[in-house]
Design a protein that fits this description.
301 residues, alpha+beta, Pseudouridine synthase, Archaeosine Trna-guanine Transglycosylase, Chain: A, domain 4, 3 domains, 22% helix, 37% strand, elongated, tRNA_psdUridine_synth_TruB, EC 5.4.99.25
Length: 301
């Protein structure tokens, strides 16, 4: 591929369709962008739709750092039915009449699941247990436990409560919710745990991710739209939106891109990854403050 028509380095914000795995989207994007160098920041379950951040070419180096950012979701939780997968993809394992659950009880249950909590991920998930994917162990009928891990639920709100009757005749409640949470949180595990706490079981019936870090749904494009016109957020713009910015002169730029650990201004202490820009506004390197000096995380320039 010539320099003139080379795929630009940057992020592609995809509005993932339901039924696609995150890897399916990456495979599709490799064809659209005509490059093998495509990766994603944070997976989305096949059932879920919404913001999936892809990196193309040099931007793949950003992805590991973007995956740690806060995420926002809109979803529907059904109280009254438990499923094998904690979402609508799995078979129903238990049903219970949820029509008597009050809004006060729902709010109390949600309060318990807000803030810094310990969460056991869903068994049908991509987490590795002793090197084997959890979903493979579950499908093979193994009896195993996944250790709880800390996650942060910054916000968990209920917008609507709708009483309805499920296909099997069970009176259920559908909650329309929004969740703002740390990376690694399973929204279907929240649905499962809320239902368990209320004594009627619960699972997730719909999920749409509306934000990953600073990247929102309004800047996302469907795969069909990207097939028509590949919209790439330039590397510098993507980094400036996601990380604190440190502008340096040409001399410091040369030293930092060669891995020299320069002194960092105090304002960057303890903030995590920092994007370093040269005099022309070009993204040069991602660094992190370590003992007052810049430790290189990824070099771009």
């Amino acid at each position: 591929m010539t320099q003139k028509n080379r795929t630009p380095d940057g992020l592609v914000i995809v509005d993932k369709p339901s039924g696609f795995t995150s890897h399916d989207v990456v495979a599709k994007m490799r064809g659209i962008a005509k490059t093998r160098r495509v990766g994603h920041a944070g997976t989305l379950d096949p059932m879920a739709t919404g913001v999936l951040v892809l990196g193309v070419e040099k931007a793949t180096k950003l992805l590991g750092h973007l995956a740690l950012t806060e995420k926002e979701y809109l979803g529907t939780i059904r109280l009254g039915q438990t499923t094998l997968t904690d979402d609508a993809e799995g078979e129903i394992t238990e049903s219970a009449d949820a029509s008597g659950i009050t809004r006060d009880a729902i709010d109390a249950g949600i309060t318990k699941l807000t803030g810094d909590i310990m969460q056991v991920p869903s068994k049908v998930s991509a987490i590795k247990i002793n090197g084997v994917r959890s979903y493979k162990r579950a499908r093979d009928g193994e009896d195993f436990e996944i250790p709880a891990r800390p996650v942060t639920i910054s916000s968990f709100s209920v917008y609507d409560v709708r009483g309805t009757v499920a296909e099997d005749g069970t009176p259920v409640l559908d909650l329309v919710v929004s969740v703002v949470c740390s990376s690694g949180t399973y929204i279907r595990a929240l649905a499962r745990d809320l239902g368990a706490d209320l004594g009627v079981g619960g699972h997730l019936t719909a999920l749409r991710r509306t934000r990953v870090g600073p990247y929102k749904l309004d800047s996302a494009r469907t795969l069909d739209q990207l097939q028509e016109e590949l919209t790439v957020m330039p590397l510098a713009e993507a980094a400036a939106a996601a990380f604190p910015r440190w502008d340096v002169d040409a001399h410091r730029a040369r030293l930092l891109t060669n891995g020299v650990r320069l002194e960092m201004p105090e304002e960057y202490a303890g903030v995590g990854a920092v994007a370093v820009f040269g005099p022309e506004g070009r993204l040069l390197v991602l660094v992190e403050e370590r003992k007052g000096k810049a430790k290189s995380l990824a070099v771009f320039g």
